[in-house]
Structure to design on (435 residues):
């Protein structure tokens, strides 16, 4: 696309300065430059004769000559009957060994002849014989098994479970028909706790105990109750420390809270408070004075001190790194000390684990609570089983035993909450007759 011809610029040329500035002399300079170049490279082209300007090219180079490629004729394929005469590429060439020591070969031959004559076998040969025998027996059994019809050694329609299927039972069949028992992981056979299922009651809980044993049982029950009472008193003391407000005070504060922001006075007071707070927040920093401004000398000094401090830190780290090579003994001592601390810690952990092995673990939200100790007071003791008062409940005892042995988590009795009110109505057949 041709460039647009712009409007001719009109300038005054009444001075030489404007001539030089606004006159285009590029073509003249190009001509002079070309002329100077010709003079430097052998004279002007216009003054040279024709023999120096032109020459006749009579030589032919190899690259310039292009001969058209001839089309190759298709060679006839070799016949199939002549394929046997061709060399077989799959056959490896014969390797001729050189520098063969004939004496060594003769010695090996004599040694092998003696071994065959004597009938002795090496360890590898004996192993090979045993392996061949085992392979023969295995293949023979396999062939016999193919001919035999499989017979089930159990009742296929029964509910019995086979733990160890024999050679005649198909494992795949047992797996599909769910007759084979699933292999459980080893931790499934471990007990969750070593506590016995039925704990033996103390001798003082007998219907006819000895005096000392009964007193010991009463003492333990007293200690348990004292511990519970102590906890209750602690809770009561903490509650008593809180100030109890009366109903009038609660009503008064409730009215004040509910009526906050309803009147204009309260709003104005709140606005004034927020203004004061904003002013305090804005005037936290003190005003900056010109006298407090640091000079250039002080800033340079601070910069130099920072650079020196950084260099000192790097030098200190380098010294510490170099000194570590010369304190191998102390490092070994520290490692031994740490290993000893770890061993002591692991030993204490194992001791604590063994100590609290029989304690119930926290399996849920609630914590396990020991049931009340069944105790008969001295006046409640009877000499015979017929007059004995029953203590506790068998179902509760088993439930607590499951919780203690980590079989189930501790739980509270579920509360039945009815979402709707019961309707009361009278049936016609049972309605009271009024006269």
């Amino acid at each position: 696309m041709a460039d647009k011809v712009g409007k001719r610029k009109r300038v005054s040329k009444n001075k030489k300065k404007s001539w030089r500035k606004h006159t285009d002399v590029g073509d003249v300079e190009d001509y002079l430059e070309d002329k100077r170049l010709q003079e430097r490279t052998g004279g002007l082209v216009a003054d040279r004769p024709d023999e120096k300007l032109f020459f006749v090219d009579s030589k032919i180079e190899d690259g310039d000559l292009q001969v058209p490629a001839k089309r190759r004729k298709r060679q006839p394929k070799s016949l199939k009957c002549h394929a046997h005469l061709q060399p077989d590429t799959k056959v490896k060439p014969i390797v001729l060994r050189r520098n063969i020591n004939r004496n060594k070969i003769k010695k090996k031959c004599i040694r092998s002849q003696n071994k065959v004559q004597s009938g002795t076998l090496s360890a590898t040969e004996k192993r090979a014989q045993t392996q061949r025998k085992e392979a023969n027996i295995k293949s023979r059994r396999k062939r016999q098994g193919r001919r035999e019809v499989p017979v089930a050694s159990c009742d296929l329609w029964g509910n019995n479970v086979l733990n160890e299927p024999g050679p005649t039972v198909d494992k795949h069949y047992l797996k599909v028909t769910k007759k084979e028992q699933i292999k459980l992981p080893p931790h499934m056979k471990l007990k969750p706790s070593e506590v016995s299922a039925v704990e033996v009651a103390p001798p003082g809980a007998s219907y006819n105990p000895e005096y000392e044993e009964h007193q010991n049982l009463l003492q333990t029950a007293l200690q348990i109750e004292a511990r519970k009472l102590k906890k209750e008193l602690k809770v009561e003391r903490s509650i008593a420390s809180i100030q109890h407000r009366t109903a009038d005070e609660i009503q008064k504060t409730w009215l004040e809270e509910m009526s906050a922001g309803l009147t204009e006075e309260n709003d104005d007071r709140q606005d004034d408070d927020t203004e004061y707070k904003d002013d305090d927040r804005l005037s936290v920093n003190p005003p900056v004075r010109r006298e407090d401004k640091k000079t250039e000398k002080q800033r340079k000094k601070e910069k130099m001190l920072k650079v020196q401090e950084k260099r000192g830190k790097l030098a200190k780290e380098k010294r510490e790194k170099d000194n570590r090579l010369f304190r191998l003994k102390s490092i070994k001592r520290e490692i031994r000390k740490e290993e000893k601390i770890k061993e002591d810690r692991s030993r204490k952990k194992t001791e604590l684990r063994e100590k609290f092995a029989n304690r119930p673990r926290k399996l849920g939200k609630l914590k396990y609570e020991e049931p009340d100790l069944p105790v008969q007071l001295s006046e409640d003791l009877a000499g015979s089983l017929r007059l004995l008062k029953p203590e506790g409940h068998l179902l509760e005892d088993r439930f607590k035993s499951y919780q203690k042995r980590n079989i189930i988590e501790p739980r509270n009795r579920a509360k039945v909450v009815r979402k709707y009110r019961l309707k009361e109505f009278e049936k016609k057949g049972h309605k009271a007759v009024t006269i």
